[in-house]
Amino acid sequence: MARDASAGVPVATALVGALAEVPSAQRPAWRALAAAWWVAGEAGSPLAPSLRQFAGSLRSLADAQREIAVALSGPIATARLVMALPVVGVLFGLVLGFNTLEILFATVPGACCLVLGCALLALAFWWNRRLVATARPTDLAPGLRFELMAIAVSGGTSLDRAERSVRQALEASGVDASVDREAVGGVLELSRRAGVPAGDLLRGEAEEARRTARAAAATAASVLGVKLMLPLGLCILPAFMLLGVAPLLLAVITSTVSGF
Predict the structure, then answer these.
(1) Which residue has the higher pLDDT, 83 or 119?
(2) Which of 246, 230, 255 is nearest to 104 (CA)?
(3) For residues 38 and 44, what is the distance between their CA atoms, to the nearest angstrom?
(4) Span 48-68, mean pLDDT?
(5) Is 214 within 8 Å of 70 (Cβ atoms)?
(6) Stated pTM of the model
(7) CA distance 180 to 251
(8) What is the separation, in whole angstroms, between the first and last Cα of the chain?
(9) Which of 9, 15, 13, 28 has the alpha carbon at shortest distance from 176?
(10) Beta carbons within 8 Å of 153's beta carbon, 6+ residues apart
(11) What is the pLDDT of residues 153-182, one digit of tens each?
(12) Residue 15, by phi and psi: left (phi above 0), alpha (psi -120 to 50) or beta?
C-alpha cells in the first residue's frame, strides 16, 4: 500500500488494493476507511478532523464486532461439542471391552448403523453451519453511510454532491451502495425542515445503527442457542444411538449368544 501511495496512486485506491493482504475480519474496517478517505477528498472536507472522528466510529465498530463474536461463541462451541457425542459413544464401548468397531465394519446390522449414523452426522454438520451462518450479521459496518454523509457535509458541499460522493466511495471500496440510502435521505430531510446541522444528526444515527446491530446480534445468539437443539435432537442424538449404543448392544448380544 505504501508503495502504491508513493507512486501517486490515490490513498483510497491503495487501501482497497491492499485488502488481499489483510485478514478477512479486518477488511470491513479497511473498506470503511477507504470510503471515508475518498469522501473527504471528493467533498473537500478537512482530512485530519474527519479521519479523527471516523477513527472513533471505527473503534465503536470494532467493539460491536467483538461483542457479536462473544455472543456467538457460546452457541458455536456448543454445536462443535455435541458433534463429538457419537465418537464418544464408540470409544466408550471400546473402553468397556466390546469391539464396537468390528461390529460397525464387519457385520450387516453394524454397517447399516454406520451408514445411517454418518448420514445423520453429515446432516447435523450442514444444519449447524447453516444456523450459525444465518445468525451472523450481514452488515459488517453498520451506520457507515451515515458517517460518510457526515464527513461529506462537513466540507460545506451541496447535499447532491455529498450523496454522489458517498455513492461513488461505497462502490469504489466494494460496499453495497444501496445500504441505508433511504434512511440517510430521511435524516437529511429532517435536517432541512428543522434547521438542525445534518452532521450531528447523521453521526447520531450512525451510533444508533451500531447499537441496533449489537442488540440484533445478541438476540440472534440467544435464538441460535435454542435452534441448535433441533439438529441435536433430530440428528446427533440418533447418530449417537446408532454409532455408540446400538453397536454396544449388538456386541453384548453377540458375546452372550456365543457363550452358550
Answers:
(1) 119
(2) 246
(3) 10
(4) 69
(5) no
(6) 0.68
(7) 62
(8) 79
(9) 28
(10) 43, 159, 162, 198, 199, 202
(11) 877 777 778 788 888 888 777 777 666 777
(12) alpha
Are 53 and 30 within 8 A, CB to CB? Answer: no
What percentage of the chain carries pLDDT values higher than 70? 80
Cell of 4: 502504491
Cell numbers 491503495: residue? 14
Provide the pLDDT for residue 123.
92
Enter the DSSP assignment of 235: I
149 and 184 Cβ atoms separated by less than 8 Å: yes
The grid cell for 179 is 445500504
In terms of Cα–Cα distance, which of 68, 71, 79 is closest to 213?
68
Picking from 161, 79, 172, 85, the residue whose alpha carbon sits closest to that of residue 128 is 79
Q: Calculate the average pLDDT of the chain.
A: 76
- 64 touches 215 (CB < 8 A): no
